[in-house]
Amino acid sequence: MSARERVLVFFEQLTEEQLSELIGIFGDCDPSDPLDEDTFETLAEVEYMKRHPEEYKSYSSAEEMLADILGEDDI
């Protein structure tokens, strides 16, 4: 199943209320608007990170990540 088909199946399962909320969130977005420089740079960085995961830390759990961030051995 393609990504487009998965998205369509997902949307078909939403209630009218959920669809209304989604339209409220994304209603002002215009997919034809060009990306601003910050967004473009962020997307490029994410793509780089996906291609080079060995350059970045990874964690087995949220607790492990928080301990690293806070500089603590145990939370």
Structural class: mainly alpha
Using DSSP, what is the number of strands?
0
Query: Beta-strand level of the residues, as a percent range?
Result: under 5%
Cα radius of gyration in angstroms: 19 Å
What count of domains describes the coordinates?
A: 2
State the low-pLDDT regions, or none. none
Rounded mean pLDDT is 85
Helix percent band: 55-70%
The biggest beta sheet reads:
none
Q: How far apart lie the N and C ends?
A: 42 Å
- Element order, helices and strands? HHHH
Tell me the number of helical segments per DSSP (H or I, 4 or more residues long): 4
Shape: extended
Task: Write the SSE topology.
Blueprint: H1 3-12, H2 16-26, H3 37-51, H4 62-70
Write structural notes for this entry.
There is one protein chain. The protein has 4 helices and no strands. It starts with a helix and ends in a 5-residue tail after the last helix. It is mainly alpha-helical and 75 residues long.
What is the gist of this entry?
Helices cover 60% and strands 0% of the residues. It has 75 residues and is mainly α.
Question: Top keywords for this entry?
Answer:
4 helices; 75 residues; mainly alpha; extended; 60% helix
